[in-house]
User: Fold histidine kinase from Marivirga atlantica.
Amino acid sequence: MNRLIIDSEKDKLEKALNEQADLRNQLDSVKQKLESYQNASAGASEGLWERNLITDEVFISPPWLTMLGYESNEVEDLKGIWESWMHDDDRERALKHLEDYIDGKIQHYDINFRLKHKDGHYIWVRSKAKLVRNEEGIATRISGSHTDITDKKSTEDTIAKSERKYKYLFQNALIGMMRVKADNYAVTEINKRGLQILAMPNVSPHLKLEDLLADQSQMTEVFDLLERNHGLEEHEIKIIRWDESETWLSLSAVFYEDETDRFYDIIFKDISEFKENLLELQRLNFELDNFVYHASHDIRSPLRSIMGLVEILKNERNPAEIRKIVEMISGSVNRLDKFVVDLLAMSRNNRVEEEAVPVNYMVEINNSVTNFHHVYNTQGLEIRTKIIQVKPFYSDLTKVRIILNNLISNSIKYRRMEESVDSFINIYVDVTEKESVVKIEDNGEGISEDKLDKIFDMFYRASENSEGSGLGMYIVKNVIKKLDATIDVKSEEKKGTTFIVKIPNKYIPQD
Assistant:
């Protein structure tokens, strides 16, 4: 029994000694091969290296050292130089990559990291390696190469920096920008400002340029210009925003081609305000021409009348006729004065912004009614008022007076004079924290439906017999706009007219 145990132990010992001898022979063979490999690769640009995972011996070729500024005789101990010369920020990542490769967690060893040069700076190295395992699958050695990729990395970093700068400028530009594929006009990118202009939350994956254009003719024109000229320059188009509203854009585009695709880089800006200003300017020019024509006529008309009456007066001796002529002159002067007052009111409304002050509707309406009660024939006219003003109301007092005076005076002037008609004016006011609602209703001459949309035009007179300047309701319209108010009118000829004005309350409660 003891004999059998001794023989067994002897066999194990002999087997271990044989394996050790084989391993030593393999190691000597590897050394010889590596020395030959080092001599052959001394002039190569790649640094070759090998590490015995059993003995921890390290072999490196001269280029491995020279790329780091060292000669072969300057480095005696090769163990651990890889780890010690590695950049602190790369060491943990690189060691784990090597460990995972040896453990079989990853299939390939290929990694970039930084090694310290003799001069103190760091170079970027690409390290590639292959693992050798024995018959039992145990990793015995690893051999590979180092390639200096500093220039390549610097170029990549420069490109990446440029791309980041482009992305930043693209996303944060103050104008809209988009990129569109040249072959099918698919929109691939839109910056933040562009999304705002288009009222889009993000870029739809299936969005195409034609989805934004308002009509077919525009689409054909834009595509034709892009294909013919490879670009656009400040081309104005109407587009449909994502919320289905329409707006005007100015487009400029350039053609761009890279290794993989062809694009149009498009910049665009919202010119709706410009378009509105242009239309407003055209409207104002029209109104100015209209104003000059009518103003000169309305000023000259009473002046010619006065001049003619003065000539008659020079030769008139009859006192009764003289008084009649003087009254006619006075009427012409009053008409001229009213016209000038309206012009001043119009000018003041356009120029002056007054602070919001308390408005007492009872006082203002009584003053307005009293003023016009003595100017016009109000015999038989019943004026009824109902004013509910519990809350304070603040607004531009001058502008509120313009509205009240014009609407009340018109109701008085254009009342029906037939004896069979019981003329009335109903004035109703209701004040809340939000606004005041003023309703002025009469049973006067009324306005025909075909004239109703013209009553706010400059120099429009509802009646041929009107002696007004034709500016009153035009001024009211502009005052309403200045106050952010609204005005609605309903009228029927020979039945009467109703105006409803809503004026925002500017009162701010004190804490």
Notes: The domain at 273-352 is CATH 1.10.287.130 (Helix Hairpins). Confidence is low (pLDDT under 50) at residues 40-44.
